[in-house]
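ok so for the tutorial part 2 we go from a plain amino acid sequence to predicted structure tokens. step 1 is just haveing the sequence, like this:
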Amino acid sequence: MALISEFKTFIARGNVLDLAVGVIIGAAFGKIVTSLTEDMIMPVVGLLTGGINFSNKFVVLGNIPATYKGSLGDYAALKAAGVAMFGYGAFVTQVINFVLMAFVIFLMVHFVSKAMPKPAEAPPAPPPGPSEVDLLTEIRDALKSRG
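step 2 — the prediction. this is what the tokens look like for a chain of 147 residues:
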């Protein structure tokens, strides 16, 4: 029962819940950036490079099975057939995806930090004065001088 109680305490911590929310939002955000890369940016890059589709750029490293009947230029079909390939086009797409995601996250953090109110500065420390010991010594000396 102590283990269950500890687990409940662990889960109830705010930072664990924040992390869970962050992971879920991050996964959804990753899909958006992947779509941006694959559906919007890479077609423009392909247009600028004369119609090159980077997702189908690869080098065959292994033997193609004799039973394979598909196109020798179809990366997905060759991959499904178990052919060893160096898929540099898919890698380039993923690198662009990563750079875009990192840039968008940077912009979000930058603008959120600008939009958030800055924490109030701590009030200045009071000027140094006599310590409690000094005050008690003064009181003792004043009482001695009276009597």
